[in-house]
Every structure is written in structure tokens, then in C-alpha cells.
Design a protein that fits this description.
Elements (H helix, E strand, L loop, with lengths): L1 H13 L1 H14 L1 H14 L14 H14 L16 H19 L2 H13 L5 H17 L5 H9 L9 H19 L10 E2 L4 E2 L2 H17 L8 E6 L11 E6 L6 E9 L5 H15 L5 E8 L13 H15 L5 E8 L4 H4 L1
Parallel strand pairs: 5-6, 6-7
Antiparallel strand pairs: 1-2, 3-4, 4-5
Helix pairs in contact: 1-2, 1-3, 2-3, 2-4, 3-5, 4-5, 4-6, 5-6, 5-7, 6-7, 9-10, 11-12
């Protein structure tokens, strides 16, 4: 038992992020044993500074650990001392638990802000957590803020449609704006939606043609003169090994000498059998978390109430509401997903 506890404590301290699935399962299934290894970890951490990031847990994992510790070792039951005392394991646990908040406040990242807001929402009676959220937000703004160059400012002033991309969140926003422009074109004066249907058979074209269509539009729309004033956009199919040619897209905003900023788009037709599960299992777990990316778009083509999938039998607004809610529930910590349902139904003049 002691050896197992020591092993779990060492994993938490030195390899927390990659070991977290196993450690989190222990917290849920073996709470008494978990108290033991958490106590061991707290004891081993006792000489570290409260806000020193001495373990590799990410922001979401820190929040999960803090809430578990607050349940098993609540602050209301923390030991109170007067005068000199010899610290007990429970004293070390208190310091360890509180250091998690210190790490999140000092992280200077937006996922840390979200993690603290999650903790504050779970513990609404702790007014001091609101101040911690404010401090984390201030640190994030100070750390993440990037000044615009003079030429970028002039570009923004000269064109209301111009955009500056510095983060994956900003690229995701630009992609969503572009897809909104595409949606207007699909049912505009000269509608583009019929190009996604096979005229001879009267059925929608394949998922691959939809992916090519989206890729063509984004490449032309985002790279046209004056839209992005500080980067160029490159699009290619996501290199998903083992599945043949991938239909999903990797969008990268590039500038010479800097690391590309990227967003992943997963493309589906509304009757895809995995439509209800792939936002989580493929886009979030495989493409984003599994490949160290942060922002994704789950793009679904709706062709009217046709096809065999149950989602195709939903009205357009119903499918949008359903996938929007799923995207919100799956966006947490460093992962941000947006759902886009495009109306690809035939205009009435084309379907008669």
C-alpha cells in the first residue's frame, strides 16, 4: 500500500498531466487511498513556494484536483494553530490545496481564468474566489496582450473588414465570419447551394465534395487582398493517419519566422452516423487534445429534411441549437469548439 501511494504521489508531482486520466480515476473510485497519496504528495511538496508551478497539471486538471480536495479536505476543517506548532500532514494538505489556486492565479492564461471561474461556480459561498478570478483575469490580460504594429493599426483604420490575427481564438472568429459570408452566398441572388447537389440524381454530393467546397471558399475569401493584414492563410486536409484521405481541414495563419496559428474544421453531412459522437471523440479528443491544438469548428451540412440520419429530420434551427449546446459543453480549459450548421438545402426555384 505504501509503495503504491508513493508511486501515485510521484506521478502527480512529476508527470501529472499525462498521468491524470489514471490519477483522476483513482480519485473517483478509491477516495480513501487517494487521500493517502494526496497526503504524501503534499508532504513532499512542503518546501516549494505556494505559487511555484512544481507539477505539470494543466488548468482544467488543477481545477478538478482542487474541487476533489475541497470535498475530502474542506477548508472549514483546516487545523487552526496559535503560537508555534509542528506541521502535520493535514497542514501540508491545506498548503498544497491552496497552492492550486495560487498556480491558477499566477498562470497568466485564459484557461486558468476559466478554471478558476469553474471553481467559483462550484463554491458560490467563497466570495474570495471572485477576487482570485479577477487577479487571474488581470494576469492573463497582462501576459497575453500583444501590441499592434503601426502598419497593422493603419490597416485596421483603412478597411472595416480587415482583421489582425494573433491567437487561435482570433483565427477561429475570422473563420466563423467567413463561413457566415458563405452561408449568405448559398441562398443569395445566384445561389451556390445547387452546386452541392447532383443534378442527375437529385441527391446531395459526397462529404468529400462538401469539404472541397469549404476549403475552396475559405482559401479565396480569407486570402483576398486586405482581409488579413498581418498573416496569410494556408489550408490543407488534416493528416489523419489510418483513415485514408481525410475530409477535415487544418487552417493555419502564417507569418515568416513565427509559429503558425491554427484551427481545425471537422466536416460532416447531417446524416453521418457518427454526427452525435464525433464532436467529442474525434474533434475534441483526437484532433484537439490528442494533437495539442486548442480551437476547432464542427461544420455540418444540412440539406433539408432528406436522408436517413435522425439529425436530418430535425429542422435547421433545432439542429443548430442541439450542436451549439454540445459545443458549449465540450469547450473547457484550453479547448474551444464552435458548431456551424450550414443550410445547403436547394432553393425552391432549383428543386422544382
Amino acid at each position: 500500500m505504501a509503495l503504491r501511494s508513493d508511486a501515485a504521489a510521484l506521478l502527480l508531482i512529476h508527470d501529472g498531466a499525462s498521468s491524470w486520466p489514471a490519477l483522476s480515476a483513482l480519485l473517483a473510485k478509491e477516495p480513501e487511498f487517494s487521500e493517502s497519496f494526496i497526503g504524501q504528495a503534499a508532504h513532499d511538496m512542503r518546501w516549494h513556494q505556494p505559487q511555484e508551478p512544481t507539477y505539470s497539471l494543466n488548468e482544467e486538471q488543477l481545477a478538478e484536483l482542487y474541487l476533489w480536495m475541497e470535498t475530502r479536505f474542506p477548508a472549514a476543517q483546516d487545523p487552526v494553530h496559535q503560537g508555534g506548532y509542528s506541521p502535520s500532514i493535514r497542514d501540508h494538505i491545506k498548503e498544497f490545496r491552496d497552492s492550486l489556486i495560487g498556480n491558477l492565479k499566477a498562470a497568466g492564461t485564459w484557461p486558468a481564468v476559466e478554471a478558476l471561474e469553474q471553481i467559483a461556480a462550484a463554491l458560490p459561498d467563497r466570495d474570495w474566489l471572485k477576487w482570485s478570478c479577477f487577479q487571474a483575469r488581470t494576469n492573463a490580460m497582462n501576459t497575453q496582450w500583444q501590441a499592434l504594429r503601426l502598419d497593422e493599426l493603419l490597416g485596421l483604420l483603412g478597411d472595416p473588414a480587415a482583421r489582425v490575427i494573433r491567437t487561435a481564438s482570433e483565427l477561429q472568429g475570422v473563420v466563423l465570419e467567413s463561413l457566415a459570408r458563405l452561408q449568405l452566398s448559398l441562398h443569395g441572388m445566384t445561389p451556390l447551394a445547387p452546386f452541392l447537389w447532383d443534378e442527375a440524381s437529385g441527391v446531395p454530393k459526397s462529404e468529400g465534395r462538401l469539404s472541397d467546397f469549404i476549403k475552396f471558399h475559405l482559401s479565396n475569401d480569407l486570402n483576398r487582398r486586405g482581409v488579413l493584414i498581418n498573416r496569410e492563410v494556408e489550408l490543407r486536409n488534416w493528416p489523419d493517419k489510418g483513415r485514408g484521405e481525410s475530409l477535415d481541414l487544418l487552417i493555419q495563419a502564417v507569418r515568416h519566422g513565427e509559429k503558425p496559428i491554427d484551427v481545425i474544421i471537422e466536416v460532416k453531412r447531417c446524416w453521418n452516423r457518427a454526427l452525435d459522437t464525433d464532436m467529442e471523440s474525434q474533434l475534441r479528443d483526437r484532433y484537439l487534445i490528442g494533437s495539442h491544438h486548442s480551437h476547432g469548428v464542427y461544420l455540418v451540412g444540412w440539406y433539408g429534411r432528406v436522408g436517413g440520419g435522425k439529425s436530418c429530420q430535425l429542422e435547421l434551427h433545432e439542429l443548430r441549437e442541439k450542436l451549439d449546446e454540445q459545443a458549449r459543453s465540450l469547450s473547457s480549459g484550453a479547448v474551444h469548439i464552435e458548431a456551424v450548421v450550414m443550410d445547403l438545402s436547394l432553393p425552391k426555384s432549383s428543386s422544382t
